[in-house]
Amino acid sequence: MKRTLLLLSLLLAGQGALAADGNTVPTPVALVDLLPPPPAAGSTGARHDLDVVLATQHARTAAESAAAKADAERSVFRLVDVLGSDLQASRLPRTAAFFKRVAALDKAEVKQAKDYWQHPRPAVVSAQVQPLAAEKPGDWSYPSGHATFGYTSAVLLANMLPEKRAAIFARADLYAEHRIVMGAHFPSDVEAGRLAGTVLGGRLLDDPSWRADYAAARAELRQALALPGQPPL
Q1: I need a labelling partner for 197 at 20 to 30 A (CA). Which of 13, 42, 74, 169 fits?
Q2: Is the preceding omega at residue 143 within 30 degrees of 0, hence cis?
């Protein structure tokens, strides 16, 4: 009950301050107060996290590795590829601009949480982990920024395109899961990203300062997919 009330208070909080570019900045979501802490070193949860990363590493195929590397790009167009190959940034400038703004907000919110917990990446925890790409020094593991962005975007896309909701969330799941395939994140990082993204996506849907850009992106996407102008209730 306490967590439910906290989620509601975050989503219904005030509009925030005015940024230099004229956009209203939402009041920051205190992810450190919302998310559970990462598993402590040596705990059962930490051992399970590492076991899953190593098992995924052992089982990953060349095709899965290539798909995971492609999903390292933090772009909404990685997520909407499931809806059609014609959905490209060059053809959807309003959608691209809206989700670029989403990505910047997500990154700032997640960085605060990462810096607070300073949870090490899998390759730092165990030399057995062989990541598919090197991560930036000082970029911590918990929560996963890619997973957060994937689920924030999925919440927004699913409300723009409710007819495609199942496919959108399935693609977000795969996008997040690829962070484990990459050896870049633990399952607990990805789960924390799912929770964080769900809250952030809901918050943006409720924020008046995002409505005009959201509506423009929705109209553009629906037109590109030959869907009716207004989504069904």
Answers
A1: 42
A2: yes
Which value, in Å, is the radius of gyration of the alpha carbons in the chain? 18
Given a contact cutoff of 8 angstroms between Cβ atoms, the answer to whether 155 and 201 are in contact is yes
Phi/psi of residue 25, nearest 5 degrees: -90, 125
Share of the chain above pLDDT 90, in %: 81
Domain ranges of the chain: 44-224
Specify the residue for token string 């957060």: 148
Give the pLDDT confidence of 179-195 residue by residue, as tens digits: 999 999 999 999 999 99
Distances (CA, A) of 46 to 14, 61, 90, 175, 187: 37, 25, 43, 22, 10
Q: What is the mean pLDDT of the chain?
A: 90
- Do residues 56 and 130 make contact, with C-beta atoms less than 8 angstroms apart? no
- pLDDT band of residue 175 (cuts 50, 70, 90) is very high
**pLDDT of 1 higher than 70:** no
Dihedral angle sign, alpha carbons of residues 100, 25, 115, 187: negative
What is the CATH number that goes with domain 44-224? 1.20.144.10
Reading the block at residue 18, the tokens are: 């005015």
Distances (CA, A) of 112 to 76, 84, 107, 123, 220: 22, 35, 9, 22, 33
Give the separation between CA 71 and CA 179, rounded to whole angstroms. 8
